[in-house]
Each structure stands twice: as C-alpha cells, then as structure tokens.
From TrEMBL:
Domain of life: Eukaryota
Keyword Flavoprotein attached: no
Name of this protein: MRJP domain containing protein
InterPro entries: 6-blade_b-propeller_TolB-like, MRJP/yellow-related
GO cellular component: extracellular region
UniProtKB keywords: Secreted, Signal
Signal peptide: 1-18
Stored Pfam families: MRJP
Location(s), subcellular: Secreted
Organism annotation: Asbolus verrucosus
Length: 401
C-alpha cells in the first residue's frame, strides 16, 4: 500500500509540476569557477605560517577539501583531516574576492576552533548544510583515523556572529568514535527540524536521523546501505578505488504537498534508494523492523556516485565517478529518463560535493579525494589542479526553497 502511495504521490506531483515549470535551460556545460593546486590559508602572520610548516602542523600537499556549501557570498569548505598536516578542517572563501586561482581559505569560525586537542573544537569535518535561517549544521564526524573525540553535530548561526546554537555528541551506538564517518547531511525543516545523515563507517554504516527539537538521534541499518561487491574496484583519473565503501550520498526532495523522500546510495554501488521522511522521523518506527518494507529501490545509475543533491525543481544531480561526469534525474519522472549531463576527464576527477547558490547556479566540487585516501599514493605540489569548483546554470535553488 505504501509503495502504491509512493507512485501516486510522485505522479501526482509530476503532473502538477509539469504544468507550471518552464522547460529548464539545457546544453550549458560546467565551467571552472575556482581551482587549487594546493590549499593554503589566511595565516594571521608570516610567523604562524612558518611555525606551522616547521612543526609539520601544515603539510601543504596533504590538505584536501571534501564538502562545499554556499551562503550569502561565501563558499564554506570542509577539509577532513585525511592526512597529517591539516591545520584547518572548516573554512570559507568570499565570492566577492576576485582571486579564482588558489584562493587562500579562511578558518571558520576562527583558528582556535580548528586547533586539535580539544573535543569542543572541530576535529575533522566532512560536510555541512546551511538551512534557510542561515544556520550551518556542521558534521564533525570523520573518525576513521586515530581520532580522539566522539563525532558531533554543531549548529552555527551565520547571521549572528557564527554563534553556536546547539551541539550534539553522537553516542557510540549511533556513530563510532573510532571507525565512524559522518559523511553527508540534508535538513528537513518540517516538524521541528530534522537532519538525515549518512554514516559511511566501514564498521557500522547506516542512516542517522537527528531531531533538533528533541536533541536526539537514532539510526537505521539496512542491506541497501552496504557496498555492492560487484560494483567495487573502479578507476577514476587513472587511480583505482579499491575500498568497499557503503552509504555515502544523500539528498532530500523539496517540500511540496505530499511525502518527502530521502534518496541515498552506497559509494561502491550503482543502486539508488529512497525512503519516506515520515518513516525516518519516528524513532519508534525506526527501532522496529517494519520500516524495511519502506526502502524503495529507485534504479541503477550509470556509475558509482559520491555526492547527490536535489534542487527545488526536483532535479537530482549525482556524480558519476569513473565516467568523470554528472548525471541528472527528475524525481517526478520515471528513473529511465535519467541522463548523463556532463563528462570531462580532465576537470571532473572525483565528482564529490554539490552546492546551489541564490542566483540559479549549481556548483560541483571535483577533488581527487581518492588520492588523499590512498596512503600509497604520493602527493606533491605541482601544476596539477587537484581541486575545482565547477558551475552550471540551472535556474534553480536548493531543495530547501
Ligand atoms: C602560503 O601562504 C603564505 C602567506 O600567507 C606564504 O608565505 C606561503 O608561501 C604559502 N605557501 C606556499 C606553499 O606557497
Ligand atoms: C582575497 O584573496 C587573496 C588570496 O587568497 C587574499 O590574499 C586576500 O586577503 C583576499 N581578500 C579579501 C578581502 O578577503
Ligand atoms: C527556521 O525558522 C523558522 C521560523 O522562524 C522555523 O519554522 C524553521 O523550522 C527554522 N528551521 C529551518 C531549518 O529552516
Ligand atoms: C498544498 O495544499 C494546500 C491545501 O490543500 C493548498 O492550499 C496549496 O495550494 C497546495 N500547494 C501546492 C504547492 O500545491
Ligand atoms: C577521456 O575520455 C575519452 C572518452 O571516454 C577517452 O577516449 C580518452 O582517452 C580520455 N582521456 C584521458 C586523458 O583519459
């Protein structure tokens, strides 16, 4: 019955949407907006920079970026501490700055909060989301190195001096202090604000639900969140990715009449899945077993993906890692209409995180991140561009709007 409801809801919304929406702009290609050969920061002074290099607190070639989000003329950038020598794990650049090549990143909210050795600070951030109220929900939960602090979620008010509004430390039974990997987050502003979070942990992968109102979290674990053995071992930018990586990408449908859906997929996998948010929002339901009937297999993507995003038109964009490209599917249409919208084996090496701005642009971070995760891979600073933020005009906004 629920499955039937799913289709009825989707086709109903589809019918309504196609009446109103104009044909989307197409044919435009992604263009490079920012590029980096290595990451450097806005040091307070030359002394700090020199000390950081001398003490190996900063090893320039080891710094990587993994998550991007846009809010009010800033790009916020997550830099998980994948390798040693990463002095800053969350920072930002201003779009008002005309520097587009190797722009230096400013620590967020400041240097102190990025210092290691205090569990109230940011230890290793993989992703974040900014809601309509300008609250940034930061996932400090990359815990697959020798980490010291339990994973946590911290809410900063970007409109009030980056004040901390709330924080939540995940208990061991929801996300492991050693072996947990809070990977990506979407925000649902219905019923008192919820976050849905993927835990890419190789030990205990799953989908975490956090209620802001209750300041509580719970987790569901399902076979659909495991890696698919048949879809492992793929090559991106000439380097094989061998890890068996579970649930990673997550996206939320826009707030229209009817049910909302969370979409997710395993990194080492081809299948895209969905589940209704009203199922997720009930802790009681999630602690039972019947919710498994509600996991809906949407279809098989053309390739493995890392990040996903849905815009306010219902277009779901997904990275196509080994195809060095991006796919798109409108969630109100059959999955057979999914298409590859861009491919570039020079600029799209590991298509990772997506962001939408307020001017109709979609941004994509391509970041070579598998090279940073592969400890046998020798990183060095060269002319090779390691990170790009590419942009595409879609005339849409985020699913939040
Ligand atoms: C990083 O920036 C500092 C100035 O803030 C500069 O002195 C240094 O040369 C830069 N590092 C590299 C590797 O270019
Ligand atoms: C603009 O970026 C450059 C290079 O990263 C930096 O030196 C400069 O301080 C930035 N300016 C502003 C106003 O942020
Ligand atoms: C933002 O604020 C409004 C009211 O001020 C509230 O209803 C909403 O749930 C808040 N949260 C998000 C995520 O937008
Ligand atoms: C949603 O439903 C309400 C009440 O049935 C209606 O007033 C409103 O116009 C609907 N909105 C959309 C976007 O269909
Ligand atoms: C880029 O992709 C095309 C088409 O798949 C392929 O023929 C070409 O060899 C690739 N180039 C590089 C540098 O990998």
């Amino acid at each position: 019955m629920y499955l039937l409801l799913f289709f009825v809801t989707l086709s109903f919304v589809s019918y309504c949407a196609s009446d109103k929406n104009e044909k989307s702009e197409s044919g435009s290609a992604f263009e490079t907006e920012y590029q980096w050969t290595f990451i450097n920061f806005t040091w307070n002074n030359e002394e700090d920079h020199k000390n950081a290099v001398a003490t190996k607190k900063y090893i320039p070639e080891n710094n990587a970026m993994a998550g991007i989000k846009f809010y009010k003329n800033n790009f916020y950038i997550a830099m998980p501490r994948v390798r040693d020598g990463t002095p800053v794990t969350l920072g930002y650049i201003s779009t008002e700055n005309s520097t587009k090549i190797n722009p230096r990143i400013k620590p967020f909210p400041n240097w102190e909060m990025n210092e290691l050795g205090d569990c109230d600070h940011l230890e290793s951030v993989q992703s974040m989301e900014v809601d309509k109220n300008g609250t940034m929900w930061v996932l400090d939960g990359f815990r697959i190195k020798n980490n010291q602090c339990p994973p946590k979620l911290i809410l900063f008010d970007l409109n009030d001096d980056n004040k901390i509004l709330q924080d939540f430390t995940f208990p061991e039974w929801i996300c492991l202090s050693r072996g947990g990997f809070l990977n990506d987050i979407v925000i649902d502003d219905n019923d008192g604000d919820f976050a849905y979070i993927t835990d890419n942990s190789p030990i205990d992968p799953g989908l975490i639900v956090y209620s802001r109102e209750q300041n509580r979290a719970w987790k569901i674990r399902d076979a659909s969140m495991f890696p698919e053995i048949d879809a492992s071992n793929f090559v991106v930018g000439g380097l094989e990715f061998k890890a068996l990586a579970p649930i990673d990408g997550i996206a939320l449908s826009p707030n229209r009449n009817g049910s909302r859906f969370v979409f997710y997929c395993s990194l080492s996998g081809l299948n895209l899945y969905a589940i209704r948010t009203d199922i997720l929002k009930s802790e009681e339901t999630c602690l039972g077993g019947f919710w498994r009937y509600e996991v809906k297999k949407i279809g098989q993507k053309q390739a493995q993906s890392d990040g996903l995003v849905v815009d306010n038109k219902g277009d779901l964009y997904y990275g196509l890692l080994p195809l060095h490209g991006v796919g798109k599917w409108n969630i109100y249409k059959p999955f057979s209409t999914a298409e590859i919208v861009a491919q570039n084996n020079e600029t799209m090496i590991w298509t990772d995180s997506f962001a939408l701005d307020d001017k109709g642009f979609l941004y994509l971070l391509a970041n070579n991140i598998h090279k940073f995760f592969d400890s046998d891979y020798k990183l060095e600073i060269s002319d090779e561009v390691k990170f790009r933020i590419l942009k595409l005009f879609t005339s849409s906004k985020s699913y939040l709007y």
